[in-house]
Amino acid sequence: MNCINFTVTMNPCPCGYYPDKSRCRCTPFEIHNYLSHISGPILDRIDLCVDAPRVEIGQIRDGKKGESSERMRKKVMTARSRQRERYQGTSIRFNSQLSAGEIEQYCQLGKGEKEMLEKLFASFHLSVRAYHKLLKVARSIADLEESGQVLRKHLQEAACYQVRD
Q1: pLDDT tens digits for 115-141?
Q2: How remote is the C-alpha of 114 from its chain's centroid?
Q3: Rounded CA gap, 111 and 79, in Å?
Q4: FRET pair for 7, CA 20 to 30 Å: which of 32, 44, 112, 137?
């Protein structure tokens, strides 16, 4: 199974300034109309959706820093090692390659997690593809946190990365 990665960027509205209400001149209808031109099946295939808010001068001046690249790299390498061990003896290399049946095997959930997933499915009106994608992303988040189980907090974080209207 080949895996192709790509990154997509786009303006959130025709003028490009939404959600900055002091600069955006678009009406809610224009924003909705602009975003509705993107095909649902295309959006369904995007694993992670993250808003990149405007950086304020104070943030630059104060030098607030997040996690270092080296620390993040170590976490990713540890997660990849966990996946390598988990999928040893299979053709799977990464969580993103899991089929529907394999998701059931490798992303087992407790009762509370199953209930939460049902609520997410209903409230976000997820397609089957988006449901499986959410589980694979949650499995990756769990791997980054060195957790053997997919927990509620992993599902919640994965849900934050879903593409929604």
Answers
A1: 999 999 999 889 899 999 999 999 999
A2: 19
A3: 25
A4: 32
